[in-house]
Request: fold
Amino acid sequence: MTLIKSISGVRGTIGGAKGDNLSPLDAAEFAAAYGHWLKKKYPGKSLKVVIGRDARPSGPMIQGIVQNTLVGTGIDVIDLDLSTTPTVEMAVVFEKAQGGIILTASHNPKQWNALKLLNDKGEFISAADGAELLSMIENEDYDFVEVDDLGSVEAKDGLIEKHVEAILALPYINVEAIRNSGLKVAVDAVSSTGGIAIPILLKALGIENPALLYCEPTGQFPHNPEPLKEHLGDIMKVVKEQNCDLGIVVDPDVDRLALIDDQGEMFGEEYTLVAAADFLLQHKQGPLVSNLSSSRALRDLALSRGQEYYAAAVGEVNVVTKMKEVNALLGGEGNGGVILPDLHYGRDSLVGIAMILSHLATCGKSLSELKAGYPAYYMAKNKIQLEAGMDVDGLLKKIEAKYQNEELSTIDGVKIDFAEEWVHLRKSNTEPIIRIYTEAKSPEKAEALATRFISELQELI
Reply:
């Protein structure tokens, strides 16, 4: 059982002791600190916070604790109940709130939950703000209001629809072409809130009779909720048997988008962002951004179109910071996260779906044909479990020194760029592991590179 506190919130498994797992007391503590942090940031102001959650079984319990703790700090709560991460982010702006909390553990199994904390722009709070909040928890630096000053809870519907309307209002989302395309679509929403949001989006785009798998938001995930090939046999089968043009797969909070192509094969999470960028660059020009662990294919695409490419440290807040710095056209992460500044600065599967459908409806190619036209890279994702007392920073410094004559980046762990392949070694923000990501021109070369660096790390331990 695990509890992980970080600058962006808290994540853990349900049950067990306070401080060891995500207990009701931990949830209340983080909510209290967040409420007090907002009150310090906006002294004397009436405050609103938007709360939404994915469908996992602990959601109602955690939501009740969090929103009533905020009420106890004198903050009003706008309750979206079952929603998506990008919808909550946009709702903060729609509702002119000072913050938001998303209750979701993303791709983690159902025994996990988390509080993800937003600022008044509907973006994840900064590292400095997160550090201040963690300090408040350590020092129990928060208090509560008297009875006449308690906040309120207002349930609010229709925010997913408002989110969808904003997507359809983007000038390059071609609703008419999608409606006339006859595209046949399958959806796997892993029994969470994508099962609510994606059918609303598809109906608005004119997609009729999609094949819906696991779209009842029970929170009883029918397979591992991380949208990887080994977990998606059911939808791959449906796409082939029903001759679908594509399959749409999201994680429980709908910020990661994976696609199944018309052959029933994985399009690849890494290529979701590439395809979205390919589409957008036909309408607008500008730099592209992804994190250091994302495929080189996005960089290659940017350069082939005469555009600049930038890499950021892993983590949505880092990617967003770099995107703002360079005024990026599009950005995201190789886990299927598409960030479109024209809509908002957050990973958003719904706008990703609309962009991909617009692309297919106007380009005259199938999804498999699109993939064949992109630079071919293959990634391997491995990890080493951390042991108590291990000097991880020192370990990575040794790797850095060993490869000092190669193209290096040390903004987030160590990334080594070789001529036709790369390796990225970094401590995970969410698990007690070192992640080892490699990419090369074939699956075999990517795995061989990973095996090589796993051995080198083990020799240095």
Q: What stands out?
A: The mean pLDDT is 95.
